[in-house]
Structures are given as structure tokens and as C-alpha cells.
């Protein structure tokens, strides 16, 4: 009877239930190594299952979408609009983070001696490997020498580059390549079906991932940095409701309608701290919201590399927070320099594992904060990451709708119909 009732719950409610169960188990089995290993295995299994289906969906959907666009000039226009929009929104997110950090002045309230340092050697190693990464390096590495190697490593930018050119080649050939389009379309539909099956395991994966976090950290360890966590979440909420809300309003969209449609995906993004797990369903839902396949297939995969508004907010907040904690007074000029450096490094290291931390490692030295300072907030990174992932996912969905409307690749009737269906459930 109970099992039947649980199965009748929507996926979003089941994921939320998994989140609650994971927190409870994490508290019960605090520092319990066997539980941590078991829960980590469950969580990793779920993430691996999602990773298994993401690339086939991206390649098939993007290639078919570009083939349907067909026009190189139009593709260039869509790409230009997308990147400009991403840059503007990321800059606004950084500025918001700097403003909130200055107004709250939380860092001055923190006693560094009460904070427990966390090992950040993995981030330092990554930072050294990517120390010279910039826009020029992205342009040099975006062209894959071996597409199969890029697929194997999950390097998104070269995959996007290849898929775009492959789609354009299909479009240029025309009728003889129709069989390829039909095949890739079938692949996409099959993978979306597989996504539905994989998502049934999501509540267990969520319980495992959040359980590991709570079991390792413990709730008591959050108190010294509780205000920073709260401020980060409040800032992200302001960005979604106010900033994204205003942008949506300018394009005659309702941010609350969008959030309602994506509620399951946002809960999943929050509990797993992974944008990747929502990508297949985000592609599916933005098409249901009225955006054409071509625009959706290009904007969303690109956004997962370049449109990281939540990460931008966190980076600005953390940089100023640490400067305040070390009693380093930053002038307006120094903060503007920090803003510029973050704008460059956040794009240059997009897609790098632990990108937010790597960006901070690459930038805090410019304001006099020692790299060891990051070890003091590394312990709560996972908890803040959950919030910034939600912002990233919501931002990519809004970007897709806006680019679709600007290109007249948006069906308003279908959008309103789908929103009404979701509200009626």
C-alpha cells in the first residue's frame, strides 16, 4: 500500500523525499565510514547513469537542430546573441555578488582561528594545470583533433564545435543526408526515453549524495560559516526573482511560470549539485515551452559551459568575504579590477572540474588573499554549490526562451498551453 502511494507521487516529490531521508541518514551516521562509502557509491552510480546519456543527447539533438537551422548566417546570429547574453548576465551576477558582500561585510565578523581548514590540493593541482587558460586558449582547444577522444573525455566545447559543423554539412548536402537526420532524431528520442527510466533512480541517488555531505561535514560544522551560506542563498534568490524576473518581463515571460515548469529539475539540481543531471530534461522541457529544436539544441549545451550565473555570484561573494576576513581593505578600483579578472578567468576555466574553486584560486592572489584562505571555506563549498547549480539551471532555461523569442523561434500558443497544463496538475 505504502509502495503504491509512493509511486503515485510526482518525481519532484520523490526526489524531495530522498533529499530529506538523505539528510536524516547523514545525521544518524555522522562520520560513519561504511555508510559514507555506501552512500557515495549510490550517488556516484546515479551521476554515472546521467553522464552515460548526456553526450548522446547533446550530439544527436545539436546536430539535428543545426541541420534544421541550415543557414550559416542565422546560426552565427544565434551564436552571437547567445554569447552576448551570457556575458551580460554573468557580469550582472558578479556585480550583485560584490555589492552584497560589501553591504553585509560578513568577513569581518569571522574569526579565522575558529574555522577548520579543508584539503584543497586537488583544486591547487587543477589551478596549476589551467593557470594560463584564457579566451585564446579556449579558441585553440575548441577544435578537436579527435572527436572520439573529446567524447571519451566529455570535453563539451569540442563536441559542440564538431556537432555544429556536422549539422551544417548535413544541411548543405540536403536530401541525400536525410537518412542521417532521421537516424540521429531516433537516437535523441531513444535517449530521452532512457532518461525517463534513469530518473526513476534519482531519489536514491539524491539520498546518497546529500547523505554523504551531511555525514562528512555534520550540521555543527556549518555554524562558523552559517551566515555566509545564508547570504549566498539570499543573493542567489534575489538574482533569480529580481534580476531574472525583470529580464523575463522585458520579453513578456513570467519567471514564476518558468520555475514552476522546472520545479523537478531545480530540486534535482539542488540535491545533486550537478547541472549535468538536468540537461536531458531541460532540453525536452524548453522545447515543450515553445522554443524550436534548433535554438534549444545550441543554447543549452553552450550555456552549460558559459552561462554560470550562480557560480559568478559565489565567486564574487567568496573573494570579498575572504578579503574582509583577512582585514584587507579593497578600494573601488581594486574591486573593479577583481570584477574584470573574474569575468576573464570564469570563462577561461569554464568546464574545468571544480571550476568555481579554480577561478577563486586564480584570482584571490590579485587582492592579497593567500591561497590557503580558500581552505577555510572549502568545507562548505558543496552546500553553496547546491544553490548555485539551481541558479545555473534556471538561467540556462531563461536564456533559451529569450534567444528563441528574439529569433522568432518561439511558439507563444504552445508556451501558454504547456504552462496551463503544468498548473492544472
UniProtKB/TrEMBL annotation:
PROSITE patterns: NA_DICARBOXYL_SYMP_2. It is a multi-pass membrane protein. Its main location: membrane. InterPro entries: Na-dicarboxylate_symporter, Na-dicarboxylate_symporter_CS, Na:dicarbo_symporter_sf. Pfam families: SDF. The chain crosses the membrane at residues 12-30, 42-70, 82-103, 156-173, 194-219, 225-248, 312-332, 352-378. It comes from the Bacteria. Keywords: Cell membrane, Membrane, Symport, Transmembrane, Transmembrane helix, Transport. It is found in: Cell membrane. SUPFAM superfamilies: Proton glutamate symport protein (SSF118215). PANTHER family: PROTON/GLUTAMATE-ASPARTATE SYMPORTER, PROTON_GLUTAMATE-ASPARTATE SYMPORTER. This is Cation:dicarboxylase symporter family transporter.
Amino acid at each position: 500500500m505504502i509502495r503504491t502511494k509512493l509511486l503515485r507521487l510526482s518525481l519532484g516529490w520523490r526526489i524531495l523525499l530522498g533529499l530529506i531521508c538523505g539528510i536524516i541518514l547523514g545525521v544518524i551516521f555522522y562520520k560513519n565510514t561504511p555508510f559514507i562509502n555506501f552512500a557515495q557509491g549510490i550517488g556516484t552510480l546515479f551521476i554515472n547513469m546521467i553522464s552515460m546519456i548526456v553526450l548522446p543527447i547533446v550530439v544527436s539533438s545539436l546536430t539535428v537542430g543545426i541541420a534544421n537551422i541550415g543557414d550559416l548566417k542565422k546560426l552565427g546570429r544565434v551564436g552571437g546573441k547567445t554569447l552576448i547574453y551570457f556575458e551580460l548576465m554573468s557580469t550582472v551576477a558578479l556585480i550583485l555578488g560584490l555589492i552584497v558582500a560589501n553591504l553585509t561585510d560578513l568577513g569581518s565578523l569571522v574569526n579565522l582561528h575558529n574555522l577548520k581548514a579543508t584539503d584543497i590540493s586537488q583544486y591547487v593541482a587543477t589551478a596549476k594545470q589551467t593557470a594560463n587558460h584564457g579566451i585564446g586558449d579556449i579558441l585553440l582547444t575548441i577544435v578537436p583533433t579527435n572527436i572520439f577522444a573529446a567524447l571519451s573525455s566529455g570535453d563539451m566545447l569540442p563536441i559542440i564545435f564538431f556537432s555544429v559543423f556536422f549539422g551544417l554539412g548535413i544541411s548543405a548536402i540536403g536530401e541525400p543526408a536525410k537518412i542521417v537526420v532521421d537516424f540521429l532524431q531516433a537516437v535523441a528520442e531513444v535517449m530521452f526515453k532512457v532518461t525517463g527510466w534513469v530518473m526513476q533512480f534519482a531519489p536514491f541517488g539524491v539520498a546518497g549524495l546529500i547523505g554523504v555531505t551531511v555525514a562528512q561535514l555534520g550540521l555543527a560544522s556549518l555554524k562558523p560559516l552559517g551566515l555566509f551560506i545564508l547570504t549566498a542563498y539570499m543573493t542567489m534568490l534575489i538574482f533569480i526573482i529580481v534580476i531574472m524576473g525583470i529580464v523575463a518581463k522585458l520579453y513578456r515571460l513570467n519567471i514564476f511560470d518558468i520555475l514552476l515548469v522546472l520545479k523537478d529539475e531545480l530540486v534535482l539540481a539542488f540535491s545533486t549539485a550537478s547541472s549535468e543531471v538536468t540537461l536531458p530534461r531541460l532540453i525536452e522541457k524548453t522545447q515543450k515551452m515553445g522554443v524550436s529544436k534548433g535554438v534549444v539544441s545550441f543554447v543549452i549545451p553552450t550555456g552549460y559551459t558559459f552561462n554560470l550565473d550562480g557560480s559568478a555570484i559565489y565567486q564574487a561573494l567568496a573573494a570579498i568575504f575572504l578579503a574582509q576576513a583577512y582585514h584587507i581593505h579593497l578600494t573601488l578600483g581594486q574591486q573593479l579590477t577583481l570584477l574584470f579578472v573574474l569575468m576573464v578567468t570564469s570563462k577561461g576555466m569554464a568546464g574545468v572540474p571544480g571550476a568555481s574553486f579554480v577561478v577563486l584560486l586564480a584570482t584571490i592572489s590579485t587582492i592579497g588573499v593567500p591561497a590557503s584562505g580558500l581552505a577555510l571555506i572549502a568545507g562548505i563549498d558543496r552546500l553553496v554549490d547546491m544553490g548555485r547549480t539551481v541558479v545555473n539551471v534556471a538561467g540556462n532555461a531563461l536564456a533559451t526562451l529569450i534567444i528563441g523569442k528574439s529569433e522568432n523561434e518561439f511558439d507563444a500558443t504552445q508556451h501558454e498551453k504547456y504552462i496551463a497544463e503544468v498548473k492544472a496538475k
